[in-house]
Amino acid sequence: MNAAQRRDGRPREAGKWAIGPGRPWPLGASFDGTGVNFAVFSANAERIDLCIFSDDGRREVARLALPERDGDVWHGHVAGLTPGTRYGYRAHGPYEPERGQRFNANKLLIDPYARMLDGRLRWSDALMGYRIGSPKGDLSFDSRDSAFAVPKAIVADPGFAWENDAPPRTPLHRTIIGEAHVRGMTMLNPGVPEGARGTFLGLASDAVLDHLTKLGITAIELLPVQAFIDDRFLVTRGLRNYWGYQTIGFFAPEPRYLSHGALWEFQTMVRRFHAAGIEVILDVVYNHTGEGDAFGPTLSFRGLDNRSYYRLIGEGRHYVNDSGTGNTLDLTHPMVLRLVMDSLRYWVEVMHVDGFRFDLAASLGREVHGFDPAGGFLDALRQDPVLTRVKLIAEPWDVGPGGYQLGNFPHPFLEWNDRFRDGVRRFWRGDPGMTADLARRLLGSAEIFDRAGRAATSSVNYVTSHDGFTLADLVSYTQKRNEANGEDNRDGHSENFSDNMGHEGPTTDRAIRAARDRRRRNLLATLLLAQGTPMLLLGDELGNSQAGNNNAYAQDNPTGWLDWEGADRSFVAFVTRLIRLRREHPVLSQRRFLHGKVRDADGARDIVWRKPDGTEPSPLDWNDAGWRTLCAELRGAAEGPDGQVEGETLYAVFNGDGPCDIVLPPGRWRRLLDTADPRAAEVPVTAAAVPCAPQAVMLFVQDKGQAGAMPAREE
């Protein structure tokens, strides 16, 4: 028997572990110079024990009942403890699943406010609060100790020498987002030191930063980096939770991305990104946790206060599942709302991140009566003096009732716009009747977002994201190839609006490869020439493929990692050029919507749609399913301050049809871009009509002083 243990197996409370009352704030474990204060919320527990572990996390060396309770916060102070201490909780209370109570003091619980975690979850039946195999199911009770299988919380010192770090605060109309995965970006990158691959420090290496800055990315949006678990069903298949959408610690960075097991690694990454002028946006999962449904493990929230943390059905045995992962956090509860708000402020104030993308954000705005744009969480977020100054992006849907809420989030939210994704894909695939839809997407989807003072930047435009085909696969496969996920190809989207261009998968046929290359150029040219906030799936510029897997959530292997050695350097150069064009021509990225209104400055309309022959389309044209060549004459917006964007008029051509001649408006023009000839230099246009190749995007700029304004009545 260990010297620190009593005969009943519980650690004895030696004198050096004496615990005093402490304070109910701040929540979590806080070092004050003399010891550590512990504070944890539970409205329904009868007692909470603090468990202290050895430095290797293997032995529980003390178990101390938190002596004080202020309201629903239990707290205590242990003198002599220092940062680095491993700990966890055990909560005593009724085990009555049919009434929503699932207390089981045999289960070690992770502190919801833990700043660091040590070790990975080891799957075992002992993690379950119920007895697996019992005829009573989750109504049974399991008495095994789970401490050996649960990551330990660590008392952390978040202090860091930030020096002169300052957030770039890039204006939205100048923002180019690159979505990325920490391991995906670094595991196969030859410029990243081998020992740093797959980590925050590797992501902040010179090789990655140089690539992003040369490309023109201003913000990197990271797939979840808050501590998460690998699902049991994946582990049994020899797979891992690659994407990370199973959060178990809202304050702790994921340990697998740390090479030294220290907070300063994440902070160093942020500081280096800021020095390069790049913002860091985190994809965060506050709609559910990794504990799953009634048959999931008891790891933290469920064991501390199941009825408070989760939205339950009826009497409380079963969980509302608006997330599709088994449970839904109850943000209508004030302490759960506080947890999320504290977490967000922590990542901004202590870790210096620049914004958040909220996974399944419709869940976060759902009240008892349904989604409410003025709901508690959304209101709290919009009034917060810390969070209102960072970028906020919603994934505006979930799988719950009324779960599709695109356009319904309040200012200052941006929203992922799947209508842009699908509409642009369908236009270039050649689906009939998509030209009018393309026009709406090119103007920032004003019919969705132009209300209540929202800006044209509210629409986060994307053609690809982590969820779905990569750009290379979008033009190479008509069917998903997800067999490696172990779900018999049932997972992932079945309707991708993709096109294999004549052959499924890889091919050596030069004509097909050329057609695929042009389609890729067209798709990204459309993205970068559209009003809104563009998001690029990083790796698309390299020509990265996932071999047709459109749901690589479990592929922490070369399928999910970027193939840097096989990079298409000519396409990297093309994407770099597109981003530069957008940056150099502010008409392409305005805050105000364009509605075809007359500008006071020159009497010209801010947007004029045209056909190839230069005439304006009629209502019959807009409804013509066979019309596939759209031209747009673009100027600074007539409404508001952007009406003062002076000095240039652009003419964009989106030809989803065969070869044609493009008649430009009067004036002297220069060709800036032609996706049919991506290496062509910028040249003046001398002919009255410009030939346009089939399936191509072209962009022209009118020389200053040659505006050739064509006043016309408002559309």
What features would you describe in this structure?
The chain has 715 residues and is α+β, with helices and mostly antiparallel strands. The chain has 3 domains: 15-154, Immunoglobulin-like; 172-587, Alpha-Beta Barrel (TIM Barrel); 595-702, Sandwich (Immunoglobulin-like), CATH 2.60.40.1180. Helix content is 19%, strand content 20%. The protein has 15 helices and 34 strands. The chain has an 8-stranded parallel barrel with strand order 13-14-17-20-23-24-25-26. Strands 27-28-29-34-31-32 form a 6-stranded antiparallel sheet, covered by helices on one side. Strands 1, 2, 3, 6 and 7 form a 5-stranded antiparallel sheet that branches. Strand 9 and strand 10 (101-102) form a beta hairpin. Helix 9 (418-429) crosses helix 10 and helix 13 packs parallel to helix 14 (569-584). The longest helix has 20 residues, at 510-529. The model is unreliable at 1-14 and 708-715 (pLDDT under 50).
